[in-house]
Design brief:
heterodimer, A: two-stranded antiparallel sheet, 4 strands, B: mainly alpha, 3 helices, elongated, cell membrane (chain B), membrane (chain B), transmembrane helix (chain B), transmembrane (chain B)
Chain lengths: 955, 103
């Protein structure tokens, strides 16, 4: 329960961050720090239990079917990292309250830091692999935004960080999948307690490799190290948190967590020790060469992480104790150093070592705090960094394995330590030692600003003196990270002049020599230049892959849709031919399939389709399509599909109306197509048609009614109170499908609105009306009959549509059909109007109608939860009247479809942008003075048709 | 047999039209392909039962047409309408084969 309180407390803190930041500005850091500190204290109440080997747990069912749950667990390893995430987090929040400019808005920053902390805490507490993965990715995403938030120069580094760490995340996902499949659970503690899955042939090594990839990308190990120094483009508090307690420590955490499974796997040891030591030395070497303090600190992190990875790779009890203590030591001194970089940069105006120096008198407190952290980094007794590094030396020397391993590891570790000493000294002496630099007005920072680094720095000293108190914690981590059931007792205080103490002293001595001779060393290093950089290689790979993707896409990138289609058609046809070739046994066809009247419809359709394919007039093609559609309606009627036939007939009417609205703006004739193209199209068309016919013949009409349909028909009345089974399927049994479908329809309508808001319908006038002066010119008079009819019929049709809507459950009709009928009525009223701007439908707010319909459908669906599930209809009997909420759902369907029809009619008739363009940009095309209505959408109409009436007439 | 021929004719017409120039003819072709799909769907329910599937009495189940494909087809028709209208709007708003006079 405590875990849930801590986790939810941190989540609530993150949620409150934007509010606090908008009220308090940068000072929001103080209350946030307070919250972090309080949560640290709450988590600390679990220390006795954890130390006694009784991990605190919490579980909340999440996806029971795959045994995934929101499981949190606090053991020794979790405790170490939880304390870092919360404790260092509190100090960095406090630091932020002074770091940022007083009046700046830091909402985004505090929010992201809050989420980042939540992700890290979730990661180190997660006892479920899926949960672990989700939080792992969340840390990558948060750090991407935190790095990228620093401005344009940070875009590229943020990209690199994201691509690399998300790539590592994919490896982790693969590992999670493998482990959970082979272990049969996603519960991390259970997986690590029973390691039978790891002994399963290739699974163990594969998972080990994937975990290594995930951890080394996250923790910036060679060759993935380069994203971390780039990430310092972020603001200093971000860097401090990222380097000391979060993000990069996630990789270390993962390695420690999986140590029980892999510590005796040679591949695990070999890869981690090699990569780790290489990173330790390479990172230290690069840190030594930096002039920018922040770069120096960043490469120092790379190097120290290398130490940690290598020592975890050694995998002995002693090595793990060293890793645990060094994780803590590194968090403390690195947080201090980064925060001090921010302080120095702020006070002295630069963080370039070449322009700094001699500030020890001006900034005495800073000098001491920085000095303490640098000494800890360099591994000078009695600071914590000395003890942890000494443990690491000891861990390497006793690495086990071949005889040469211990000495070689030891020597390499000392080399890295010497360089570490070198850059630590360079850091401190470069800023505070030597003669005073150009700036003479540098003053000490305020106490509030120095508070956080002072605390972390002091902690390094205190824990150095009191290092023995850490022993039980280290023992616990060791017990949890590799040797469950074993209580190991580790003495942190060196007992005498052992080999590791000697190594420490040698490293210090050589480090002093390196510092004294740094001029000569610098000269040598300056001549050595790596032939390539990680950034460069990565960028080339990234750009290359983007170019390759672009090239691949270019093969099919064309503006002509027809260029894509033959390939798809031919491939589909080839599949069909292959299936025919292979042959599939089919049942004999049922009797009574075809009636003579069917053939009549088929023949008429064939004539219509053939004509539609060959005509060159657009209007003729649309009319022919309308005929075919009407024939389809008759066909459906012949099949007894009455609801489908009704739908088809009304849709056909509406399609023709909408098409004509647009077609009258387009040229009369289609563009001619070349003979070769027509020939190819005809061949493909005949082939596809023949295959369709054969396939349909072979695969339909060969079985009895399906069990589902039988069930639906026998149970429709009892289950839904409706007898029109088609409608009950739509609004009741399969209402979720319907909801999706009407959403598509609504979106298509909104798409039209959006499309015609940004572009516009083309303004070519209806050329049919442009000749002569006969009666057909006068649209107003011409339409008198239809207008008179529409005045009576349109309202009647809309009323009829309501009737059809409400009777749908029990007779032919329903939301779809009702809406289409209403649409047809509105279309009649619309086309009869002399002017689309006087059309009766002009005032109907189609977007709210669509949105309202969708809301009704959704709310009805949600009400279903009262009776067991989304979209489950509620029933109510009032006397003999049976009411079902499915009818209300159908009302939602009705509104969406009606709204879509209105949107189409409205937008296809009126091009608002065109009007605005005309008014705003082409004043010479002014409206005629006698123009009482607002129809100016197409001034050319007046010019070409020679009359006001023709101009107003829209059909 | 009649359903198979009908679907074949519609697919042939549809494929021919979508391979022509201009979005309008593509839209017309898609309408035909939509019809063809609807025919196949209804045929999958079986053409030997042709009574309307309004089931007042259980005895009517024997002769009633399969309602499930009908429900699919009904929504498919409406969606095809939405897609067609969208395509037509695209055809009418851009510039290209559809909106320019052929020369």
């Amino acid at each position: 329960m405590v875990l849930l309180i801590v986790f939810l407390g941190l989540a609530a803190t993150a949620a409150a961050a934007p509010l606090l930041a908008s009220w308090l500005g940068r000072a929001a850091g103080w209350p946030l720090a307070g919250a972090f500190a309080a949560l640290t204290a709450i988590a600390a109440t679990q220390v006795p239990d954890v130390l006694a080997g009784r991990p605190t747990e919490f579980a909340w069912a999440w996806i029971p079917s795959v045994d995934a749950a929101f499981r949190l667990r606090l053991d020794g390893i979790g405790l170490l990292f939880t304390m870092l995430v919360l404790g260092i987090g509190a100090l960095i929040m406090a630091y932020c309250a002074r770091y940022f400019a007083p009046e700046s808005s830091q909402s985004r920053f505090y929010t992201l830091m809050g989420i980042f902390a939540v992700a890290m805490l979730g990661l180190v507490l997660a006892d479920d692999l899926l949960l672990l993965f989700v939080f792992w990715e969340l840390t990558s995403i948060c750090s991407f935004f935190l790095i990228g938030g620093a401005g344009d120069k940070a875009v590229r580094p943020a990209m690199r960080a994201l691509v690399l760490t998300a790539g590592g995340g994919l490896a982790l996902l693969a590992a999670v999948a493998l482990v959970s499949v082979h272990a049969g659970t996603t519960r991390l503690s259970a997986i690590l307690a029973d390691l039978s899955w790891a002994g399963d042939g290739w699974v163990g090594p594969a998972v080990a490799l994937l975990v290594i990839i995930a951890a080394t990308t996250k923790s910036a190990q060679v060759p993935f190290h380069f994203w971390l120094p780039g990430a310092m483009a972020a603001s200093t508090p971000v860097s401090a948190y990222l380097h000391a307690a979060a993000m990069v420590k996630a990789g270390i955490y993962l390695l420690m967590r999986f140590t029980p499974a892999f510590h005796d796997l040679v591949m695990w040891n070999a890869i981690l020790v090699t990569a780790g030591l290489a990173t330790a030395i390479y990172g230290a070497l690069l840190a030594f060469r930096q002039n920018d303090l922040k770069s120096l600190a960043a490469y120092s992190t790379v190097s120290q992480l290398g130490y940690l990875v290598a020592i975890i790779g050694v995998g002995t009890e002693y090595a793990l104790a060293a890793a645990a203590v060094h994780t803590l030591a590194h968090a403390l001194f690195k947080a201090t150093l980064f925060m001090m970089v921010g302080v120095i940069d702020h006070q002295a105006g630069t963080r370039d070592l070449r322009r700094l120096g001699g500030l020890r008198a001006a900034m005495p407190v800073s000098a001491v705090v920085t000095g303490v952290a640098a000494l800890s980094t360099a591994g000078i007794p009695p600071l914590l960094g000395f003890y942890s590094k000494e443990k690491i030396f000891a861990g390497f020397v006793d690495a086990g394995g071949p005889a040469w391993a211990g000495p070689v590891f030891g020597v390499l570790a000392v080399v890295a330590a010497v360089l570490t000493f070198g850059y630590s000294a360079r850091f401190w002496f470069g800023v505070f030692g030597g003669p005073l630099s150009e700036r003479t007005d540098v003053r000490e920072a305020s106490a509030a600003y120095l508070l956080s680094p002072a605390v972390t720095g002091t902690a390094g000293v205190v824990l150095g003196f009191g290092v023995a108190t850490l022993a039980p914690y280290a023992s616990r981590v060791v017990a949890d990270a590799g040797f469950p059931g074993h209580e190991v007792d580790i003495h942190l205080v060196p007992t005498g002049l052992t080999i590791d103490v000697v190594m420490s002293l040698v490293a210090i001595a050589l480090g002093i020599a390196l510092h004294l001779g740094r001029g000569r060393v610098d000269a040598v290093l300056d001549r050595v230049r790596a032939p390539f950089t990680g950034d460069g290689v990565f960028d080339r790979l990234l750009d290359g892959s983007i170019r390759a993707g672009h090239g691949t896409g270019g093969l099919t990138r064309t503006f002509s849709p027809a260029a894509h289609l033959p390939a798809a058609i031919v491939l589909l046809g080839a599949l069909a031919v292959a299936a025919l070739w292979g042959g599939t046994p089919v049942a004999p066809p049922m009797d009574g399939l075809t009636r003579p009247s069917d053939w009549l419809v088929v023949a008429c359709v064939a004539v219509g389709v053939l004509a539609a394919a060959v005509v060159t007039s657009r209007i003729a093609a649309v009319v022919l399509l309308g005929v075919v559609g009407a024939l389809m309606g008759i066909w459906f009627l012949l099949l007894g599909a009455v609801d489908v036939a009704l739908t088809q007939l009304v849709v056909e009417v509406l399609t023709v109306v909408v098409m004509v609205l647009v077609l009258r703006r387009l040229p009369l004739r289609f563009h001619p197509t070349g003979v070769a193209r027509r020939g190819l199209a005809a061949v493909l068309a005949l082939g596809a048609g023949a295959l369709t016919a054969v396939g349909t013949l072979a695969l339909t009409n060969r079985r009895e009614l399906s069990a589902v349909s039988e069930w639906l028909m026998t149970n429709s009345y009892e289950e839904t109170g409706g007898v029109n089974v088609v409608n009950t399927i739509l609004v009741d049994f399969r209402a979720l499908d319907t909801l999706g479908e009407v959403t598509v329809v609504g979106l298509a309508a909104l798409g039209i609105v959006a499309l015609l808001d940004t572009t516009r319908l083309t303004g070519i006038p209806p050329s049919e009306f442009s000749l002569g002066t006969g009666p057909e010119e006068n649209v107003d008079d011409n339409a008198i009959v239809v207008r008179t009819v529409a005045r009576i019929m349109a309202p009647a049709i809309v009323l009829l549509s309501l009737y059809m809507l409400f009777r749908g459950h029990n007779d032919h009709g329903g939301g779809f059909i009702g809406a289409l009928v209403a649409g047809a009525g509105l279309a009649l009223a619309h086309v009869a109007a002399a002017n689309p701007r006087k059309s009766p439908i002009r005032a109907l707010p189609y977007v709210p109608i669509i949105a309202g319909g969708l809301m009704i459908a959704l709310v009805t669906g949600l009400l279903g939860y009262l009776d067991g599930g989304f979209l489950r209809p509620l029933h109510l009997d009032v006397g003999s009247l049976h009411l079902s909420s499915a009818v209300v759902f159908d009302v939602g369907v009705y509104l969406i479809v009606v709204g879509a029809v209105i949107a189409a009619l409205h937008r296809m008739s009126i091009a608002p942008l065109l009007e605005r363009d005309t008014m705003a940009h082409t004043p010479k095309e002014e409206r005629p003075p006698d123009d009482e209505d607002e129809d100016t959408e197409s001034p050319m109409v007046a010019a070409t048709s020679g009359g006001r009436d023709a101009e107003e007439g829209e059909l | 047999m009649s359903a198979a021929i009908l679907a074949g004719v519609l697919v042939a017409g549809g494929v021919y039209l979508i391979l022509q120039r201009g979005l309008i003819r593509m839209a017309l072709g898609l309408i035909l392909l939509g019809h063809a799909a609807n025919v196949v769907l209804l045929a999958s329910g079986g053409l030997y039962r042709r009574e309307a599937s309004v089931i007042e009495q259980i005895a009517a189940v024997r002769a009633a047409a399969d309602p499930l494909p009908q429900a699919f087809v009904l929504t498919a028709i409406v969606i095809t309408f939405g897609v067609t209208v969208y395509l037509v709007a695209l055809a009418g708003s851009g510039s290209g084969d559809d909106t320019e006079e052929s020369t």
